[in-house]
Amino acid sequence: MFKQPYSIQFSLPKWIPDFVNETLTIRNIRNIEDRMSFIIEASRRNVLEKTGGPFAAGIFEIESGKLISIGVNLVTTQGSSILHAEMIAIAIAQRKLGTYDLGGEGIAQHELVTSAEPCAMCFGAIPWSGVRRVVTAAKDADVRNIGFDEGPKVTDWKKELTDRQIEVLFEIKRTEAQQVLNEYLQVGGRVYNSRESS
Amino acid sequence: MFKQPYSIQFSLPKWIPDFVNETLTIRNIRNIEDRMSFIIEASRRNVLEKTGGPFAAGIFEIESGKLISIGVNLVTTQGSSILHAEMIAIAIAQRKLGTYDLGGEGIAQHELVTSAEPCAMCFGAIPWSGVRRVVTAAKDADVRNIGFDEGPKVTDWKKELTDRQIEVLFEIKRTEAQQVLNEYLQVGGRVYNSRESS
């Protein structure tokens, strides 16, 4: 008889609630740089706590700067290759707001703020999520530079998104994000990859 | 104080266990066409039960034909845009086998059998999953033909995968899969999409 798990649960690290409530001293983060610094700080904490890869992402209301969800990379610690920070931030925001479409009628417009440019999977997930803006820090090249593979991405991912009316802001606080990537190497973080990647 | 779900659970439809155990009369499915027919039948059942979009996917051991996991599209019913059939099949297989890498040392080689060519997100998820082969039925054009958007995909997704040593078999039982897509329209299934898609 065939057996498989008929439900799957994944959980964020235990440090997340305290981190958010200690770091997020104001309700809404008006400034895009400050939103990114908060997300990069979450990626650093994920490294220090050894709860996953050096990546974090969040969903914010674009206009108000209200944080809706935060996700961190959990691939190695929760045992699934789909658990990139962006996927988790999107899934949690959708669960919290009760919709699979973060750009639906009657709700605020949302953005994905992520500490690094999205890999091929997360890039592909963005149009389905309903976010109207994507904000990134570390470049694709920075991520590859510490040994991570970004996967087979379209030639101009920014254009593909803007063609779909999704605004892209990039290299916001890039240097801060690069520092976290380097810290991950320094603490001996695991660089997992697909097979036969360069 | 900030609040969000700190764990997320998604569940497969209740009909799945009985479906699998009634349909899978043999332990291992030797023939690739038969594996695909089984997956297409799951996609049909997902349409008839109205538990999601007209898509199903499974992870099999390539050599033995042993089914490891089955997933169906749950976007509208479980409220998350990341819950495509392929993502679910991958996540469940990884949970079942206790690894984020289905191509790791010491385990059998695995394949993803999916009733339609992968969208941009699922395509990007494939290299991370560790599968060594991808088998598809309906073409990208068939999916677009009933109004679904496949997202911004690379120009030649098959080449990108084969370049990474992932074999691709396509148009296996395409006509059967097309029928299910049409049945979805006939029963008034919801065609959800990203914004501003063609």
Can you lay out the helices and strands and say which pair or pack?
Two copies of one chain form a homodimer.
Chain A lengths: L6 E5 L4 H8 L8 H17 L7 E6 L5 E6 L2 H4 L6 H13 L12 E7 L3 H10 L3 E6 L1 H6 L11 H7 L3 E3 L4 H13 L12
Parallel strand pairs in A: 4-5, 5-6
Antiparallel strand pairs in A: 2-3, 2-4
Helix pairs in contact in A: 2-8
Task: Provide tags for this entry.
alpha/beta, Cytidine Deaminase, domain 2, 5-stranded mixed β-sheet, 8 helices, 39% helix, 17% strand
Describe the structure.
By secondary structure, chain A is of the alpha/beta class. Chain A has one domain: Cytidine Deaminase, domain 2. Chain A is 39% helix and 17% strand. Chain A is built from eight helices and six strands. A five-stranded mixed sheet of chain A has the order 3-2-4-5-6, with helices on both faces. In chain A, strand 4 (110-116), helix 5 and strand 5 form a beta-alpha-beta unit. The longest helix of chain A has 17 residues, at 32-48. The first copy, chain A, is globular, with a radius of gyration of 16 Å. Chains A and B meet through strand 1, helix 1, strand 3, helix 4 and helix 5 of A and strand 1, helix 1, strand 3, helix 4 and helix 5 of B. Strand 1 of chain A pairs antiparallel with strand 1 of chain B.
